[in-house]
Amino acid sequence: MENFLALDNMNHISYLREVQGHxxxxxxxxxxxxxxxxxxxxxxGVVSTPxxxxxxxxxxxxxxxxxxxxxxxxxGMSNNKVINLANPAGAAATDxxxxxxxxxxxxxxxxxxxxxxxxxxxLGGLDYLALQFPVYKDRIALSAGFIPFSHAGYxxxxxxxxxxEETTSTIVQxxxxxxxxxxxxxxxxxxxWDDFMIGANVRYLFGKLTHTVHTIPSxxxxxxxxxxxxxxxxxxxLDFGAQYRIRLGSESQDNIILGATYTPQLTIKPELSFNENxxxxxxxKPQITERAETMETATPHKIGVGFSxxxxxxxxxxxxxxxxxxxxxxxxxxxxxxxxxxSYAGALGVEFxxxxxxxxxxxRMYYRGGVNYESNYYKTDLLGQxxxxxxxxxxxxxISSISTDRSxxxxxxxxxxxxxxxxxxxxxxxxxxxxxxxxxxxxWFRKLKIY
Length: 451
Prior knowledge:
mainly beta, 20 strands
């Protein structure tokens, strides 16, 4: 009888410890949500570059830190330990016991140069927050979170000489920009049968981008001007995805997963506001002009395909390709000398796990590498269409000291990318980015059994 009581007490102690762990993670999740809510405009603008001055800024390719280490793949990836931000069908890979929370942040060093200027920056910020959990066995799972859509951040100084009949005046123009557009999403993944999964996300796209121009003339006769341009956006979006697994032999653990995603074109109505002070900094009454206009445009059709080849739970090779059809979207930036054009993105990556059940920590780590390419969604007469190429390396470190199928993981990814113009060879941008991600993998849905 005493032995049964001892076992009963041990089970209750184990259960209480598990509950404490769940509460701790819940508190961390709540704090993270509050942090994102309070810093929406600054959270994901971690790059300072003049390239973000046009359009919606730099667009982000959604990926967790784990799969950023593989170049940013995801469309053909299916893993019950990683939340798939690229393909909503990936949510169906969650097993019936796991509750996943993934939090990512980054710091980077950037260097921009053109024919006249050169600038280095060091910035950082929160990237994303996502969670995922099953609602019906291992067949249906839900996912939700905050992921970036685009961001802007830059600071420029330009001097212009104006020649008069007798003297030459110099006008200094200071250009600054900041802000970001975010996506709050909720999605569902369904395992239709063992090897076929589908999913869908509903996104709420919101945020604002602010650009300022401060003009300072050298002559006291002329007045300073200060212009503020703001783009605000609040709209809904949809994403659809599917994955199909091909098993390579009945006894083999090898398999190939084929994935596809589709984002339909949906109308959005951003608000553009303009504020101009033609007598900025003067003791006289400022001359302020304000106006606002609601424009009508759309998010582009986006189509993506991907694959992953998993070999005996030790190695994964994956690749993605996607295109966004921007040329069919009404161009609200035409007055900025910008032309919307179709963009393309591709990624190829590999992950290697020496031995999941080894006693050596180094053997239980994930080792990752990848390359990627992306073309910009607009072009200008001066720069044409810019292109970005990158390479990434990453590791995944299990937190638990013993082998387990549900181990939380710390992911680190180091990436380097170069953005360049094929028209202006002197213009380039180089960014070295270090990303940290923490994936909490908890067994929230296990029933307590007392023997």
